[in-house]
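Hi R.,

Here's the chain you asked about this morning:
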Amino acid sequence: MKKVTEKRIKLIIFDFDGTIADSFEFCYSSINDILKKRKRGSITKKESSEARNLSAKEAFKYFKISNYQVPFVLNKIFKQISEKVDEIEMFDDFPEILETFKKNDIKVILLTSNIKKTVQKFICNKKIDQFFDAIYFKSGVFSKHTTINKIIKKYKLKKEEVLLVGDEVRDIEAARKSGIKVAAVSWGYNTKDILLKSKPDFLFKKPLEILNIIKK
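And the predicted structure, written out as tokens:
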């Protein structure tokens, strides 16, 4: 994995769930409730562990959630997460990380599939709202690249000046479709092993390592 970028990054796009917000258990609790209502039974610890080694599409298939059911299931998940937002923790050191980027004149964007009121309440509760130049909500679970392209165009940047930071294989795939660099973090939804298989430009094991992208 690279330690620094060859060209200075001017804009960083952060994913929300699993990257900044530690919402994994809340997400799986919600899926568990949905599956119980369908008489499928509870998710076992083994199944939860195995699902983390799958892409989002593979995970939905693993839990026998069909493509047409995905929007309904995601809506349920995000609504339940919203009800528990005060209980969701933030991963370590993000205030310092975000403040450092701002001090280095790096724009910081938040890109999320989650609902507006949840994200806004979370970042206000954690006192990190002032660090974001913009927030893009409802980005589309499998179409993040379209929003990324809009961000690049809006800020009139070269693709090599933009970095996406996320915790899932689909974040890596979105970055590749947009032609930008991507940093995968191993503390979120997907495991280090499956993230490495998708060959991100960077893989970070601890939040403070994200600061390595600042060219020295």
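The first strand starts at residue 11 and ends at 14.

Let me know if you need anything else.
M.
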